[in-house]
Specification:
Blueprint: H1 3-27, H2 31-43, H3 51-70, H4 74-89, H5 97-109, H6 115-125, H7 130-142, H8 146-159, H9 164-176, H10 180-194, H11 198-210, H12 214-227, H13 235-242, H14 251-261, H15 265-272, H16 277-292, E1 298-304, H17 312-315, E2 319-326, H18 329-338, E3 343-346, H19 349-355, E4 360-365, H20 376-385, E5 386-398, E6 404-406, E7 412-414, H21 416-425, E8 428-436, E9 440-441, E10 444-445, E11 448-455
Parallel strand pairs: 1-2, 1-4, 2-3, 4-5, 5-7
Antiparallel strand pairs: 5-11, 6-7, 8-11, 9-10
Helix pairs in contact: 1-2, 1-3, 2-3, 3-4, 3-5, 4-5, 5-6, 5-7, 6-7, 7-8, 7-9, 8-9, 9-10, 9-11, 10-11, 11-12, 12-13, 19-20, 20-21
Bound molecules: S-adenosylmethionine.
Amino acid sequence: MDSKHHAAGSAAARRAALLQDGFGHLAHGDPVAAAAVLEQAAALPPVPGDDDDAACLADACAGWGEALALAGDPAGAAAAYRRAITIEESAGGRARWAWRLAHAEALAAAGDGVAEAAFRALAAERPDSAPARLGLGAVLAAAGQTAAALDEVREAAFLAPGDPAVTAVLAGVLVDAGDALAAVELVEPARRRFGDDPALLVPLGRAWAALQEPDKARAALAAALEADPADARGAAAVLAALDGGDEGLNPAYVRALFDRYADRFDADLVTKLAYTGPALLHDALLRSAGAAGRAARWERALDLGCGTGLMAVPLRPAVGMLAGVDLAPRMVDKARARRLYDMLSVGDVVEAMEAQPGSWDLLTAADVLVYLGDLHPVMAAAARALRSGGWFAATVERRGGDGFALGPARRYAHADSHIRAAAGAAGLAVRLLEPCSSRQERRQPVPGTVFVVERV
Ligand SMILES: C[S@@+](CC[C@H](N)C(=O)[O-])C[C@H]1O[C@@H](n2cnc3c(N)ncnc32)[C@H](O)[C@@H]1O
């Protein structure tokens, strides 16, 4: 064998080995590891004229798509499935149905407008496919085309009677269509049969809310949150809307979310989401101190929503006494293990500030205010907690226009004007307020704002 053929042969063998490894991770429920390995398998150049290698490459791309979808990157998943489909179709004929369906589902999950056309093509090809009709119905519902959505989802329910996924979507569309009672009648028997499935409980909660039964709505939504603290279906946002929408997220929800997340937090945030909040905040503090001609040193600092303690790393050398507070006990355990704080407590940030008025030179909140809505109470508490000349520094997600709003990822975004208004109302002077991005979502930087305000 000449060296060119040898190299091609070993590339094919390497891809096959990576493919096996990647599917192994998928089978063991580790989509993040699977995505990393299958990405490598998909990146190896194709071996010219080798049909088996081309098939292996298409499998690698489809597997990568599956892993990305499971890891919460639907846009990446759609692109990987698209590549698998293109490779398979280059050999002639249509790519396999399962990949085309998964591609459409990934497009829909990514909020890509092309999803409707993809599902329409699938539903036209196989009008008796419940997943295709359900997918089309769900995208039409998301686009506000409620009547057309109802037709498609009812068809899916006829094709797959009793399927809980279809029942859940149908219930949601019925609520959108103004028939909340039909949604309750549909979900209650399914709930008895399938138990507390959050997919059923969230539309049930929405239905009870529409029927002016807030207690029943709260019970269903709380059960959904308990069954799925990561809240993939947005129960917390419905609860927040039910409670007037501007009181921040339910603390029980935030605590459960981060307690569950504590073990994976550092690795996920730093590697997957490219999180740089503490470094950004530290840099903003250094520059503000430079501009004010002050030493970048603080006697007593309180790190609000300290989490696992990432903020303590840059802060520790600049602070005399460093305290931290967080709602989630397991996050506080992780922070304690870092051995950088002098004092740690479990509790709410506003209550922690109110507990020790006039006693802090520095308050920090890295990626924490995204869990609070209106910043007026936080700024007012910070103003009371700070000594004269003390600083409050934080990062938030940025929203254009005015005010603040809860986004689909159940994090609040705040307008710069809202930050200024809340600081001004509390008597805090803005020393720095500028755009930044402290994390990525779907591999795109999330727009943010970093600010430093001073109790004058
Ligand atoms: C995204 S983490 C950021 C943690 C840390 N500041 C960092 O930069 O790594 C948000 C943290 O804020 C905490 N948190 C959210 N709302 C809170 C509140 N009202 N009171 C106390 N902690 C809160 C959560 O429990 C979580 O640990």
